[in-house]
Specification:
Helix content: 10-25%
Order of helices and strands: EHHEEEHEHEE
Strand content: 25-35%
Largest sheet: 7 strands, mixed
Number of strands: 7
Distance between the termini: 26 Å
Mean pLDDT: 93
CATH superfamily: Gcn5-related N-acetyltransferase (GNAT)
Number of domains: 1
Shape: globular
CATH topology: Aminopeptidase
Length: 181
């Protein structure tokens, strides 16, 4: 994924920054919490499995995934992550994904991050479509996306294998305004 500037998040509690090596342990810690884990498709067994997310712009290509740390404005410690995967330069599309430590749920952080990244994806990365898939059990995440301007498009039955079971996912999309509209 090519871009020339980083997203700038306007939220009083958190900021977005590149993921660093020291973020892997706290990230793994909260991803392992059942309340976080149960409504996601994560299946991480060790912090080392997250190492490929550590920021390395020298390896970015037009179809590279990119993920940012959501960090506390006070301590700069990682409290969540968000970014894009399944990037298609040809179609100018990518899928947004995010996770957040349970301690910070309900503070508007995920909605602010999703809205910020959708806007940044359209403007800085020139994406026409930002999409998201959400397990049908993850009602909180559906609300986050809807508050961020995403629209539900439909149900994808048995779409993704989630720890041995094929789960149903809702598809959401945030489409850039058309120039001719």
């Amino acid at each position: 994924m090519h871009f020339t500037s980083l997203p700038e998040l306007e939220h009083e509690l958190v900021l977005l920054r590149p993921i660093a090596e020291q973020d892997l342990q706290p990230w793994f810690r909260y991803l392992s919490e059942p309340v976080v884990f149960e409504h996601t498709s994560w299946n991480v067994k060790a912090p080392s499995e997250l190492a490929h997310y550590v920021w390395n712009p020298a390896e970015f290509t037009e179809s590279s995934q990119v993920r940012f740390a959501i960090a506390s404005r006070v301590s700069n410690s990682l409290v969540g992550t968000a970014g894009f995967h399944t990037v298609s330069a040809q179609n100018a599309t990518a899928e947004i994904a995010y996770d957040l430590s349970h301690d910070l749920w309900g503070k508007g952080i995920a909605s602010a991050v999703c809205g910020c990244l959708a806007h940044w994806g359209h403007t800085a990365a020139k994406l026409v479509r930002v999409q998201a898939t959400v397990l049908e059990s993850n009602v909180r995440s559906m609300r986050v996306l809807e508050r961020s301007g995403f629209e539900r498009e439909g149900l994808l039955r048995s779409y993704r294998n989630v720890r041995g079971t094929h789960g149903n996912f809702y598809m959401y999309a945030h489409v850039a305004p058309r120039a001719d509209a």
